[in-house]
Write a structure and sequence with these properties.
alpha/beta; Alkaline Phosphatase, subunit A; Gyrase A, domain 2; four-stranded antiparallel β-sheet; 22 strands; Ectonucleotide pyrophosphatase/phosphodiesterase 7; signal; Alkaline_phosphatase_core_sf; Phosphodiest/P_Trfase
């Protein structure tokens, strides 16, 4: 009997062990930088519309504050608010040396990114999955000595608008899934952020770029089908922030700190200004209250806060990297330092409660319900959703799976690790059969497994005179 039992368990392991890995659901996270929640309202977007019919569409999502690229993307990857993950700005800076690095160079400052929070691709790899990232902010860094298994960082002078490159990158990612058996990939496109800045969110150029995004969404779905991934691959498409029109042509009184009576840059040890509508100041010892009181109320569209007095809902105060005085402007305005040097027609970085700052959200695949429109939610909640689909235990995070779980085909009582499983009894033994993934098909498969196991029992436990 023991020998037969051993043979039976070996048979179960051999027959049913491999398919679980083979059929495990995969996940592609895509960000189209600066795609505002309503960009599909003034442009025909047949592919995004079809994706909504085939999956899930959110009314909009709310990014974290500060609503700029690197901090917001790292919130999606970690499920942490910006004050908790520590990537507080696009620019790395050193208040002692007053050195600053622009966005691209900051991607390669490892300690800026690796300060305690792990992006999902590292968490997935530590739990036995394979992960990759293409151009996504944070890809260039290592985290506690680990990097994404497959990674590609864009070159310095990269053309983010090139549609041919978009298609090549889409096919490349699909080949990673098929040929290298990756489970998770994050993919980044730098538009429509670029045209939104240069021409404004209401421009014909922005509308044309949205058409390009839509064509790319259709191409990605076709590429997934071409690579035989349709039944396995879940796709989440979102963005880091929206975009707002900047008032120009003398229509408003611009915010220029050097013109404010009583304010002097000599009272500062360091400042981070001329970066859209946001700024941070480090006053010299003994100068904090003076600088604060001078700026507070100096312009009707300038908000000035001491770090510890920041509104709680912004989650942007409890980090040593955040400077003592925080500034932000109302939509339509930017903050200039010595004199105006910003000429973008569109900007982001405003309060995340402003509707212009809200990105879009779409999801499709075997894990997701079809033709479902859901209400707004914070992008910090995308992380636990992704962990659930991948069947991995999330790191400590600020999101909640309960916010998004109703999007899934099976909205059941699975644990945060996202395991699907059934148990069955065979000849007095209770055998638990588990599989990773979120689709109903997995549960059906494991139920079938139990039936086959009972059939196997009849084979392995036949009386000796009938063999």
């Amino acid at each position: 009997m023991m020998r037969a039992t051993s043979l039976f368990l070996l048979w179960v392991s051999c027959v049913f062990g491999a398919p679980v890995s083979k059929d495990r659901q995969k996940l592609l996270l895509i960000s189209f930088d600066g795609f505002r929640w309503d960009y599909d309202r003034d442009v025909d977007t047949p592919n995004l519309d079809q994706m909504a019919k085939d999956g899930v569409k959110a009314q909009y999502v709310t990014p974290p504050y500060l609503t700029i690229t690197s901090p917001s993307h790292f919130t999606i990857l970690t499920g942490r608010y910006i004050e908790n993950h520590g990537v507080i700005h696009n620019m790395w800076f050193n208040t002692t040396t007053t050195e600053k690095k622009p966005y691209y160079q900051s991607q390669f400052v490892n300690e800026w990114w690796d300060n305690g929070s792990l992006p999902i691709w590292i968490t997935a790899q530590r739990q036995g999955l394979k992960a990759g990232s293409l151009h996504f902010p944070g890809t260039a860094s290592s985290y506690q000595g680990q990097v994404a298994m497959v990674q590609e960082v864009e070159p310095l002078l990269y053309n983010y608008k090139n549609e041919t490159a978009w298609r090549e990158n889409s096919d490349k990612v699909m080949s990673w899934f098929r040929d290298r058996d990756l489970d998770f990939v994050s993919l980044y496109f730098g538009e429509p952020d670029g045209v939104g800045h240069k021409y404004g969110p209401d421009s014909p150029e922005r509308r044309e770029m949205v058409r390009q995004v839509d064509r790319t969404v259709g191409y990605i779905r076709h590429s997934a089908e071409h690579h035989g991934l349709t039944d396995q691959l879940n796709v989440i498409i979102t963005a880091d922030h929206g975009m707002s029109t900047v008032f120009r042509n003398g229509l408003v009184e611009e915010i220029t700190l050097s013109k404010i009576p009583g304010f002097s840059f000599r009272d500062l040890s360091f400042h981070l200004l001329d970066y859209g509508p946001s700024g941070m100041l480090l006053p010299k010892p003994g100068k904090l209250d003076g600088v604060y009181n001078t700026l507070k109320g100096a312009h009707p569209h300038l908000h000035v806060y001491k770090k510890e007095e920041m509104p709680e809902h912004l989650h942007y105060s409890k980090n040593d990297r955040i400077l003592p005085i925080i500034l932000w402007a109302d939509p339509g305005y930017v903050i200039n330092g010595y004199f105006p040097v910003q000429f973008n027609k569109g900007e982001h970085g405003y309060d995340n409660q402003e509707m212009d700052m809200k990105p879009f959200f779409r999801a499709v695949g075997p894990a997701f319900q079809k033709n479902l429109e859901v209400g707004p939610f914070e992008t910090v909640n995308i992380y636990p959703l992704m962990c659930h689909i991948l069947g991995i235990q999330p790191e400590v995070n600020d999101g909640h799976l309960s916010v998004t779980k109703h999007m899934l085909v099976i909205s059941d009582s699975r644990g945060s690790g996202g395991k699907v499983g059934v148990s069955c009894e065979v000849e007095g033994m209770v055998i638990q059969v588990s599989a990773s993934g979120a689709a109903e098909a997995e549960t059906m498969k494991t139920t079938t497994t139990c039936r086959l196991m009972r059939l196997a029992k009849r084979i392995f436990y036949l009386p000796r005179n009938r063999i």
